[in-house]
Amino acid sequence: MADAAALEALAREIAGCKRCALAAGRTYAVPGEGNPNAEIMFIGEGPGFNEDQTGKPFCGAAGQFLTQLIESIGLKRPDVYITNIVKSRPPGNRDPLPEEILACKPWLDRQLEIIKPKVIVTLGRFSMGRFFPGATISRIHGQAEKCGDYTCFAMYHPAAALHQGSLRSVIEADMLKLPKILEDIRKSERPAAPAAQIQPAPAETHSQLKLFGF
């Protein structure tokens, strides 16, 4: 409950944010939504037209594909957390500028601190650049890497499949790797089983007792 309240308070702050010029042209800021205790956090690039109109992330055609991807690994959207690298729509759906990404960085940092996801899934090259600076998405997509305190997993943005149909199967295959990655993290976090106590053999016990006069 505390995490949910913290995220709600943060969302109210984001709704009033004027740290960059994007605030002037938006309808609604789009903080993000989902499970405050999510093990998987998806980070896209920026809100589009539909997101700007509703204040909700990934609610257009790319969002429908993302929902299908999430369901393909046995989860629902409310099980995960979904947000973007910038919280306001860039005009004309252009790419977010470096200064806009930098202005939104404190918001994303605080979301990460509250949610503490086991896996961060970056969707597209701009969110990938936050965790994999200098990398190319064609080289690292579908691979889990340790990024500081987090395990990060780069994927193509769902919208890429809408523009380039051949990427759809690539994105679907990458998503299917997530359950094993998550299970491996869970196993690594489990406490080690206590070592078995070796009981002395009966004869050995008897000889030890004789030493003490029993």
General description of the model:
The chain has 214 residues and is of the alpha/beta class. It is 48% helix and 12% strand. The protein contains eleven helices and six strands. A six-stranded mixed beta sheet has the order 1-3-2-4-6-5.
Offer a few descriptive terms.
6-stranded mixed β-sheet; 12% strand; globular; alpha/beta; EC 3.2.2.27; 48% helix; 214 residues; 11 helices; metal ion binding; Uracil-DNA Glycosylase, subunit E
Task: Provide the fold topology.
Blueprint: H1 2-15, H2 22-25, E1 33-34, E2 40-44, H3 49-54, H4 61-72, E3 81-84, H5 98-115, E4 119-123, H6 125-131, H7 137-140, E5 144-147, E6 150-155, H8 158-163, H9 167-175, H10 178-189, H11 202-211
Parallel strand pairs: 2-3, 2-4, 4-6
Antiparallel strand pairs: 1-3, 5-6
Helix pairs in contact: 1-5
Low-confidence stretches: none
Q: Please state the structural category.
A: alpha/beta
Number of domains: 1
Give the percentage of residues in beta strands.
5-15%
List the secondary-structure elements in sequence, H or E. Answer: HHEEHHEHEHHEEHHHH
Question: CATH homologous superfamily - what is it?
Answer: Uracil-DNA glycosylase-like domain
Strand order of the largest sheet: 1-3-2-4-6-5
**What's the CATH class label?**
Alpha Beta
Separation, N- and C-terminal Cα atoms: 61 Å
Mean pLDDT: 92
Q: What overall geometry do the principal axes of the alpha carbons give?
A: globular
CATH architecture: 3-Layer(aba) Sandwich
CATH fold label = Uracil-DNA Glycosylase, subunit E
Task: Give me the number of helical elements.
Answer: 11
**What percent of the residues sit in helical stretches (DSSP H or I)?**
40-55%
State the major sheet. 6 strands, mixed
Count every beta strand, where a strand is a DSSP E run of 2 or more residues.
6
How many whole angstroms does the radius of gyration measure? 23 Å
